[in-house]
Amino acid sequence: MSKIVVIGAGPAGMMAAITASENNEVILIEGNDRLGKKLFITGKGRCNVTNSKDISEFFNYIPGNPYFLYSSLYTFTNEDTINFFEDEGIKLKVERGGRVFPNSDKSSDIIKGLSKAITKCNIKIMLNSKVTRIIKNCNKITGVEINNSNIIEGDHFIICTGGASYPLTGSRGEGQRFAKELGHKIKELKPSLVPIEIKDEIVKDLMGLSLRNIELAIYENNKKVFKDFGEMLFTHFGISGPLVLSGSRFIKNNKNYEVIIDLKPALDIKALDLRIQKDFKKYINKDFKNSLDDLLPKKILPIIIKLSKINENKKVNEITKEERRNLVHLIKNFKLTVKGLRPLEEAIVTAGGVDTKEIDPSTMRSKIIDNLSFAGEVIDVDAFTGGYNVQIALSTGYVAGSSI
Ligand SMILES: Cc1cc2nc3c(=O)[nH]c(=O)nc-3n(C[C@H](O)[C@H](O)[C@H](O)COP(=O)(O)OP(=O)(O)OC[C@H]3O[C@@H](n4cnc5c(N)ncnc54)[C@H](O)[C@@H]3O)c2cc1C
């Protein structure tokens, strides 16, 4: 029986410990005082644990090294995730976009499911135990140093220390540092799924406004790099919300980017013009500033009115066809200039990490160090929102643990 040391008790580490324990003695080492601290805050405290789409569709939602994940996602699929939690007594439900959540809407239930399986597997858990150093002799790891003092020895080591975002959850990029010291290449750590800062002062007036059913496109030097439909939110520094987080993946800080929002994507130019004419008829004796209440959210009206360059006190029956055409264009092309991304610490996911070229995708074993494996966000993989990131952690953890 070999002694396996798993570092980090997020979804990847917990799953790796569970599968490794089938034929081995397992120690799960966690720096925090509890398991799954980041998992607890996922999905706004509800944990979007996976997605119900066919597993073959997952790769469309993984911009960061999808091919590397083929083997692990097909070995432990989203259906396996659902069965795993249901076997542990955690009922799940499917919501819009195939997002899977616990029935209870409590992420703690997902942690409970994993903890129950860990207890059954006789895994030794060491909490409040931060790995501070990895000890290597020739091309083999012999042990890990805990809290700068005692050494835990082992036969095989699995690094599951996560990315470097939300550092208060314990994921601080330490696994990437260890991997680098062990000779692995690290792809630069960058924020992925992060709010976007906007240059235009108008965002301050829009703070708190949440828009649903809009289309958002991102342009890099006038070339479209992202377009999708959904929800977004204005904040004191710029924009956030699911659509914005996904779009942020396509922004590199040093280029010129614009965000163009179609506030009425369900209506084409002609249909929107007809709709505005209908509203103008309804409010025929009103000033322009009081004519768009049925069309757009109240908070954005003063800005649209100002940007339209139509005098706000003009009677609607005096508005020209040309002015109306400009108004339609503005509503379908509400433009914001990107200042940059919020920092890595605020990102939902870290892009970059241990170079996938140096990891065997079917076992998660290092191609450089004989008795080392990786799983989860510590690797250079990242996905959009929708439950894909936790599924990646579980699938790679499953493969890492079962391939020793
Ligand atoms: C606010 C927020 C919401 C999110 N919502 C979702 C969602 O709903 N659905 C989804 O799919 N994804 C979501 N994610 C992303 C998802 O949480 C991560 O991709 C996932 O947790 C990665 O799992 P992991 O096991 O690789 O790493 P982590 O969950 O980060 O776990 C790593 C663990 O390793 C421990 N550790 C680190 N260094 C050491 C060390 N030196 N010694 C000992 N222990 C160490 C850490 O304390 C941590 O517990 C969200 C992320 C955030 C920040």
Automatic annotation (TrEMBL):
Segments crossing the lipid bilayer: none
Pfam families with a match to the protein in the record: HI0933_like (PF03486), HI0933_like_1st (PF22780)
Record's keyword terms, sorted: FAD, Flavoprotein
Cofactor: FAD
Domain RsdA/BaiN/AoA(So)-like insert: 190-349
Gene3D superfamilies: FAD/NAD(P)-binding domain (3.50.50.60), HI0933 insert domain-like (1.10.8.260), Translation factors (2.40.30.10)
Domain RsdA/BaiN/AoA(So)-like Rossmann fold-like positions: 3-402
InterPro entries associated with the record: BaiN-like, BaiN-like_dom_sf, FAD/NAD-bd_sf, RsdA/BaiN/AoA(So)-like_dom, RsdA/BaiN/AoA(So)_Rossmann
Name of the featured protein: NAD(P)/FAD-dependent oxidoreductase
Organism whose genome encodes this protein: Clostridium sardiniense (Clostridium absonum)
